[in-house]
Amino acid sequence: MKIYLVGGAVRDKLLKLPVSERDWVVVGASPQEMLDLGYKQVGKDFPVFLHPETKEEYALARTERKTGPGYTGFDFHAAADVTLEEDLVRRDLTINAIAESTEGELIDPYGGQDDLAAGRLRHVSPAFSEDPVRVLRVARFAARFGQYGFSVAHDTNALMRNMVADGEVNHLVPERVWAELCKALATDTPEKFFTVLHGCNALTILFPEIAAAYESNSGAHKAQNLPAALEALRDSAAKTNDTHIRFAVLLVSLQPDQTTEQRIATTEALCKRFRIPGDYLKLAVSAIQLERNITDNNPEELLEAMESTRAFNDPTCWNRMLKTCTITHHIDSARAELLDTVKQKSSSVNAACLEDKSLKGPAVGAAIRELRCRIIESILLQQ
């Protein structure tokens, strides 16, 4: 039995990047041998075991065979006679198909180190085309390693285009698309996730709203520059690490010439399609809906904006919304600071602040609103 460190841990180690998690492949062992050594089996489709102490995942070397469309149509074969090379060839990219022995020896049968040096995302074998999730993974890796100059190999892009033409991308489930997009949003060059999908024709199928931005921008279509929405997403990465804000910036910047109602409908349709968490949707909708309110000095309008984002209960959405609108240039940083001051001062108002202690029920709420409006007006007049 031999054990090898594989995948992202080896790749990131070679790139001198922090290694967040380690995956292992075990060659020449049976499930029973792993159990006898104290490992706990957790894999359902194929044997994966948790180390008794580190709880890291150890998978038996395996091969796989395509049996149906999409990314779930596979049969797996895990046995003691499966070699390391057979296990590595089923992986998506050469940079993820490098193994390291317990003695520190690198096993790189498919040229992963050369591709790392060249900044190239290249598929290991034609079997890449059997799993449509790999299209998303390549796009996500392009986003993650874009700052280091990585790009998709021409033959890999051609293979991805064929996969799209064959309808493989249509089998992707919403949750997996969002999972890969969410990871891409957390990278230093999140816009590359979409440019790669555009380059292989998958953008029109998965994100037609963003593909439309290419069609309305001839320069972007010719790769001379990005659509405005992707430029905004790129710029947001330099100003915040919050993926909620980055996602909101992208959607706020889409179709700016449309009505507020149309833009909200587009945002809601995209989020519904990929079952995107509600807090992401709420922030994007709030930023679109309130981008005019927060530029107005009408105390009532500003108070309604704060109330609609529940700023007095949980300021998270309000603060994110201000940051989003700052990045999209609807307000400047000075205005954002002023509005934050307005929120803090008005949020201190409660029933105890009211002079008329005889008020009850809805009258208390109305009086609190009135006092908050006066405070907001007072702060604005001082500017």
Structural class: alpha+beta
Compute the average pLDDT.
Answer: 92
Distance between the ends:
74 Å
Helical run tally: 19
Domain tRNA nucleotidyltransferase/poly(A) polymerase RNA and SrmB- binding: 149-213
GO molecular function: ATP binding; CCA tRNA nucleotidyltransferase activity; metal ion binding; RNA binding
Organism: hydrothermal vent metagenome
GO biological process, one term: tRNA 3'-terminal CCA addition
Q: Which descriptors would you attach to this protein?
A:
single chain; 383 residues; alpha+beta; Beta Polymerase, domain 2; Hydrophobic Seed Protein; 7-stranded mixed β-sheet; two-stranded antiparallel ribbon; 19 helices; 50% helix; 10% strand; elongated
Secondary structure topology:
Elements: E1 2-6, H1 8-14, E2 23-27, H2 31-36, E3 40-41, E4 48-50, E5 57-60, E6 62-66, E7 74-78, H3 84-89, E8 99-101, E9 106-107, H4 112-118, E10 120-121, H5 133-144, E11 151-152, H6 154-165, H7 174-185, H8 191-199, H9 203-206, H10 208-215, H11 218-221, H12 228-237, H13 243-252, H14 260-273, H15 278-290, H16 299-308, H17 316-327, H18 333-347, H19 362-381
Parallel strand pairs: 2-5, 10-11
Antiparallel strand pairs: 1-2, 1-8, 3-4, 4-5, 6-7, 8-9
Helix pairs in contact: 5-7, 5-8, 12-13, 13-15, 13-17, 14-15, 15-17, 16-19, 17-18, 18-19
